[in-house]
Recover the amino acids of this structure.
C-alpha cells in the first residue's frame, strides 16, 4: 500500500535484449491523484526531462481513505532515498535564474497594475476600485478571509470544469508557458547551444551570471536587513521603529484597525487623484534602505582605524 496520496508513480519501459544489455525506451511519472482511467503518456528520457522513444498507454485506478489522505497532507513528506546527487549544470542554472526573475517580474507587474489604479490612469476602474476598497474594509470580518479563499479556489475548479473550452485555450496559450515568455521578455534570449561561438558563449555566461548575481544579492540583502533591524545595526532606525510600534499599539487600542486602513487607502486615492504624477513612496522599503546589510557593515569595519 501507498501511505501518501500525494506520491508519484514512476514507470520505466525497457527493451529486453538477449545478446546486448537492455535498452531503456523511456520513463513516465504519474501523480497518484491523476490515476483515474485509461490515458496515453509520451515517454521521457531517464531524467524525465527530454523526450523518450514512443508512447505508453496506462490504465490506473486508486482507492484511498479521504480522511487519512487529508491528515497525511499536513505531515512531513517522505524523501526519495535512491536519488542521484544533483550536479552542476549550466542549463539548470539558467532555468533556476529565470524562475527567480519570473517571480520578481510578476511582483513588479502586480505593483505596476496597482499603481495605475491608484494614479487614476483609468478613472472608471479607479473609482470602482476605491468603492470596493471602502466597502470591503468597512464590512470585512476575520472569518470572511478563509471563506473568500475557499470560494476563490472553488470558482477556479468550476471554471476549469465547465469553462473547458476557454480553460484549454488559456492553458495551451498562456498557462503552460513560463512567465518570462508570456510577457515577451524572454523572446530575444537564447539557450546555451553547441553552435554558439566562443564569444557568444562568454556573453551568454556573463549575462546569466549577472542576472543571478543581482537576484541573489537582492534576496540576501533583504534577509540581512530584516535581521539587522533586530540587532540594532542602525540604532536610530531601530529605535524609531520601536517608538512607532509602541505608539501604534496605543492607537490600535483606541481606534479599530479598519478605520486606520480606510484612512490610509482613501488618502492614497486622494493624493493621486489631485496629482497623478506625484512620486509615491513605499514606507517599508524606504525604512529598510536605511538599514545596513552585511556588505555595508563589512565596508564600514574596513574603514575603521
Amino acid at each position: 500500500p501507498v501511505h501518501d496520496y500525494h506520491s508519484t508513480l514512476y514507470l520505466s519501459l525497457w527493451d529486453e535484449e538477449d545478446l546486448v544489455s537492455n535498452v531503456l525506451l523511456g520513463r513516465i511519472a504519474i501523480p497518484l491523484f491523476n490515476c483515474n482511467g485509461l490515458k496515453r503518456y509520451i515517454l521521457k528520457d531517464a531524467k524525465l526531462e527530454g523526450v523518450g522513444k514512443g508512447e505508453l498507454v496506462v490504465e490506473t485506478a486508486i482507492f484511498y481513505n479521504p480522511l487519512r489522505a487529508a491528515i497525511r497532507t499536513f505531515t512531513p513528506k517522505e524523501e526519495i532515498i535512491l536519488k542521484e546527487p544533483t550536479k552542476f549544470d549550466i542549463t539548470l542554472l539558467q532555468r533556476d535564474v529565470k524562475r527567480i526573475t519570473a517571480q520578481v517580474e510578476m511582483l513588479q507587474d502586480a505593483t505596476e497594475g496597482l499603481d495605475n489604479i491608484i494614479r487614476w490612469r483609468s478613472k472608471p476602474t479607479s473609482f470602482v476600485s476605491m468603492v470596493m476598497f471602502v466597502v470591503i474594509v468597512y464590512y470585512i470580518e476575520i472569518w470572511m478571509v478563509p471563506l473568500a479563499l475557499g470560494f476563490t479556489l472553488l470558482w477556479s475548479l468550476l471554471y476549469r470544469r465547465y469553462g473547458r473550452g476557454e480553460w484549454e485555450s488559456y492553458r495551451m496559450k498562456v498557462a503552460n508557458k513560463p512567465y518570462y515568455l508570456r510577457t515577451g521578455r524572454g523572446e530575444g534570449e537564447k539557450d546555451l547551444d553547441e553552435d554558439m561561438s566562443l564569444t557568444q558563449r562568454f556573453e551568454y555566461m556573463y549575462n546569466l551570471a549577472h542576472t543571478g548575481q543581482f537576484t541573489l544579492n537582492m534576496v540576501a540583502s533583504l534577509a540581512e536587513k530584516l535581521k539587522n533591524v533586530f540587532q540594532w545595526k542602525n540604532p536610530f532606525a531601530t529605535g524609531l521603529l520601536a517608538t512607532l510600534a509602541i505608539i501604534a499599539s496605543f492607537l490600535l487600542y483606541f481606534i479599530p484597525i479598519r478605520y486606520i486602513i480606510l484612512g490610509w487607502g482613501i488618502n492614497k486615492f486622494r493624493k493621486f487623484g489631485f496629482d497623478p504624477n506625484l512620486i509615491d513612496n513605499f514606507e517599508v522599503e524606504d525604512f529598510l534602505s536605511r538599514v545596513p546589510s552585511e556588505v555595508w557593515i563589512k565596508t564600514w569595519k574596513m574603514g575603521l582605524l
